[in-house]
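Appendix B.2, paired examples.
Example (i):
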Amino acid sequence: MIVRAASGWQTVIADLALILFLITAQAVGKKPATQSQAEEERQPPASSSALAVHRPEQGESVREWLIASTTDQRQMATISVGYTQEKRAEALTEAERLLAEADSAGVPARLIATPNATDDVVITVDYLRQQ
C-alpha cells in the first residue's frame, strides 16, 4: 500500500500565494507614516528647481549669502515667513528687513507670509524668471 500525503506541492504553493496576496493587500491599504504637521510646515516652499535653501536666525544678515547663491539673472529668492498669531508684527518686520537686504544685494525676491504653528523663516533661490 502506498501512503500519500494529504496535500501535494500545488496546495502548498497555492497557500503561499494566498498568504503573499493577503500581506500585499494589507500593506497597500495602509497609509505611509507622515511627518508631524509642524515639521511639514517648516519645509521650504515646494519647488522643483531649488538651488539653495537657508534658514536665517532672527536679525542675521543674508546679503552675502544671497550674492553667493545667485549666479543667473533668471534666479529669484523666495522669502517664506511662518508666524504664530502672537508674533505676526515681528515676523512681518523681519520679512521687510530681509526683502531690503535682497534689494541691496541686487537679487529679485518675493515674500510669502503665512500663519504657522511655529515662527520660521526660510529663504530659497530658484529659477523663477524667464529672462
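Example (ii):
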Amino acid sequence: MARSALMNVMVGAAAKAGRRLARDFGEVENLQVSVKGPGDFVTKADLEAEKTIYDELSHARPDFGFLMEERGEVEGKDASHRWIVDPVDGTTNFLHAIPIFAISIALEREGQIVAAVVYNPIMDELYTAERGKGAFFNDRRLRVANRRHMTDGLVSLSIPHLGRPDHAGASRQLRNLMANSGGIRSVGSAALDLAWVAAGRFDAVVQQNIKPWNIAAGMMLVREAGGFVSDIHGRDDMFGTGTILAANERLIGELERTVNKGL
C-alpha cells in the first residue's frame, strides 16, 4: 500500500520510538525481579519515547502544535493543526512486562482527526488510517466485525483501580455487560482496544476517565473501518466527557443502553 507523505512521517516517528521501546521492554522484563523494580526505568522510557516522537514530528511539520501526555499542550504557529500523542498507551502493562501497549499518534485539523497511527512495537502491529481512505493493519484493509447482537459480542472495558473514581458505577456497568454480552475483557490500552474493534477482534469497547491522547488515533481507526464511536451519552463529545463507546452500526445503540441501564 502506497502511503501519503503525511502518513510516512507519522509511521516513521512511531517506528523510531518503537525501536527504543522494544529495547527498553527487554530491560523491564529483567527489572521485574529486582528489588528496586522497573518503575523509574519505565518513566524514563516513556519520556524518551515522547521526546523522539516530538522531535521527529516537529522536524517534519515545524508549525504544528501538540497535545501530549507528558508535555501537555504545545502551541504551534499553525493553529489549525496539532498532533495528539501518547508515547506509551498501556504504561501499567509495560511496567509489568506485559507486551500489550502502543504508541498512539493522531493529527487533528480544524478540530477533526484526519490521520492516525497506533503501533505495538513488541508484536510489530501497525494500525493506520487517513480520513476517507480507510483503516489498515500492516497494510491490510480493516473492517469492523458484523455481529448483530451484544449477546454474541466480545466487549473490552476499562476497570477503575486505586485512585480512580466511580468504582460503584463501573461495577454496575460490568454487571450489565456480563448479563448482555458474549464475553468481557480488560486489555489496559484504550488505543489498542479501539484498534482491535477496527480489526474485528473486539465487537465493542467501553472506556471512561480517559484523555484525548488515549483515544484520538483509535477512534479514527474505528470510523475508517466502518464502525461508530460516541461518548457514553451517545453524543460526539468524547474528549469533553472523557468517555467513549465503539461498536458497529448494529451494536452501538444497544451498547449505549446497556452501559447506562440503572443510571
